[in-house]
Give the backbone structure.
Amino acid sequence: MTNNDIFKKLRVALMLRDDEIVDILKLVDFKVSKSELGAIFRKEDHPKYVACGDQILRNFLNGLVIHLRGTKDNPKIPKEVLYQKQNTPKKASFKQKDKKRKTPDVSYVKYKNKKP
Protein backbone atom coordinates (compact mmCIF):
# COMPACT_ATOMS: atom_id res chain seq x y z
CA MET A 1 0.00 0.00 0.00
CA THR A 2 1.48 3.34 -1.04
CA ASN A 3 1.39 6.69 0.73
CA ASN A 4 -1.08 7.86 -1.91
CA ASP A 5 -3.49 5.05 -1.00
CA ILE A 6 -3.25 5.89 2.71
CA PHE A 7 -3.79 9.59 2.03
CA LYS A 8 -6.83 8.86 -0.19
CA LYS A 9 -8.39 6.54 2.37
CA LEU A 10 -7.96 9.09 5.17
CA ARG A 11 -9.49 11.81 3.00
CA VAL A 12 -12.54 9.67 2.25
CA ALA A 13 -12.94 8.35 5.80
CA LEU A 14 -12.79 11.82 7.35
CA MET A 15 -14.78 13.44 4.52
CA LEU A 16 -12.16 16.10 3.88
CA ARG A 17 -12.13 18.46 0.92
CA ASP A 18 -8.91 19.72 -0.64
CA ASP A 19 -9.17 23.15 0.99
CA GLU A 20 -9.59 21.50 4.41
CA ILE A 21 -6.48 19.40 3.81
CA VAL A 22 -4.56 22.56 2.88
CA ASP A 23 -5.73 24.15 6.16
CA ILE A 24 -4.68 21.07 8.15
CA LEU A 25 -1.22 21.18 6.57
CA LYS A 26 -0.97 24.89 7.44
CA LEU A 27 -1.33 23.95 11.12
CA VAL A 28 2.16 22.40 10.94
CA ASP A 29 3.58 25.15 8.67
CA PHE A 30 3.64 22.97 5.58
CA LYS A 31 2.46 24.73 2.45
CA VAL A 32 0.90 22.77 -0.38
CA SER A 33 -1.48 23.92 -3.10
CA LYS A 34 -4.76 22.38 -4.22
CA SER A 35 -3.27 21.48 -7.58
CA GLU A 36 -0.46 19.54 -5.88
CA LEU A 37 -3.06 17.65 -3.86
CA GLY A 38 -5.01 16.96 -7.03
CA ALA A 39 -1.91 15.39 -8.55
CA ILE A 40 -1.45 13.20 -5.47
CA PHE A 41 -5.05 11.97 -5.56
CA ARG A 42 -4.97 10.97 -9.24
CA LYS A 43 -4.77 7.40 -10.50
CA GLU A 44 -1.31 5.94 -10.97
CA ASP A 45 -1.66 5.64 -14.74
CA HIS A 46 -2.59 9.32 -15.17
CA PRO A 47 0.17 11.40 -16.84
CA LYS A 48 0.13 14.07 -14.10
CA TYR A 49 0.18 11.60 -11.18
CA VAL A 50 2.62 12.47 -8.40
CA ALA A 51 3.74 10.01 -5.73
CA CYS A 52 3.02 11.18 -2.20
CA GLY A 53 6.26 11.50 -0.30
CA ASP A 54 6.81 10.53 3.30
CA GLN A 55 7.17 14.18 4.28
CA ILE A 56 3.72 15.18 3.00
CA LEU A 57 1.98 12.24 4.69
CA ARG A 58 3.90 12.76 7.95
CA ASN A 59 3.00 16.46 8.07
CA PHE A 60 -0.62 15.70 7.23
CA LEU A 61 -0.86 13.20 10.08
CA ASN A 62 0.76 15.64 12.52
CA GLY A 63 -1.61 18.38 11.37
CA LEU A 64 -4.56 16.01 11.68
CA VAL A 65 -3.64 15.35 15.31
CA ILE A 66 -3.62 19.09 16.02
CA HIS A 67 -6.87 19.55 14.07
CA LEU A 68 -8.70 16.84 15.99
CA ARG A 69 -7.11 16.98 19.46
CA GLY A 70 -6.02 20.59 19.59
CA THR A 71 -2.92 21.80 21.41
CA LYS A 72 -1.94 21.53 25.07
CA ASP A 73 -3.08 25.11 25.62
CA ASN A 74 -6.35 24.66 23.75
CA PRO A 75 -7.41 20.99 23.84
CA LYS A 76 -10.36 19.71 21.80
CA ILE A 77 -12.48 16.59 21.99
CA PRO A 78 -12.06 14.67 18.70
CA LYS A 79 -15.65 13.36 18.70
CA GLU A 80 -16.99 16.91 18.87
CA VAL A 81 -14.77 18.06 16.00
CA LEU A 82 -15.95 15.18 13.81
CA TYR A 83 -19.58 15.67 14.90
CA GLN A 84 -19.44 19.35 13.96
CA LYS A 85 -18.06 18.39 10.56
CA GLN A 86 -20.95 16.00 9.91
CA ASN A 87 -23.66 18.39 11.06
CA THR A 88 -22.55 21.56 9.32
CA PRO A 89 -25.14 22.65 6.78
CA LYS A 90 -24.10 21.98 3.23
CA LYS A 91 -24.05 24.76 0.70
CA ALA A 92 -27.25 25.09 -1.27
CA SER A 93 -27.01 23.89 -4.81
CA PHE A 94 -27.75 26.17 -7.73
CA LYS A 95 -31.20 24.61 -8.20
CA GLN A 96 -32.08 25.18 -4.55
CA LYS A 97 -30.97 28.80 -4.75
CA ASP A 98 -32.98 29.26 -7.94
CA LYS A 99 -36.12 27.87 -6.25
CA LYS A 100 -35.70 30.35 -3.41
CA ARG A 101 -35.59 33.26 -5.85
CA LYS A 102 -38.80 32.37 -7.61
CA THR A 103 -41.57 33.47 -5.33
CA PRO A 104 -45.14 34.02 -6.49
CA ASP A 105 -45.40 37.17 -4.33
CA VAL A 106 -43.00 39.09 -6.53
CA SER A 107 -44.62 40.87 -9.44
CA TYR A 108 -42.79 41.02 -12.74
CA VAL A 109 -41.43 44.31 -13.96
CA LYS A 110 -43.26 45.76 -16.89
CA TYR A 111 -40.93 46.82 -19.64
CA LYS A 112 -41.46 49.86 -21.77
CA ASN A 113 -41.40 48.14 -25.12
CA LYS A 114 -43.20 44.97 -24.16
CA LYS A 115 -46.90 44.62 -23.65
CA PRO A 116 -48.04 42.77 -20.53
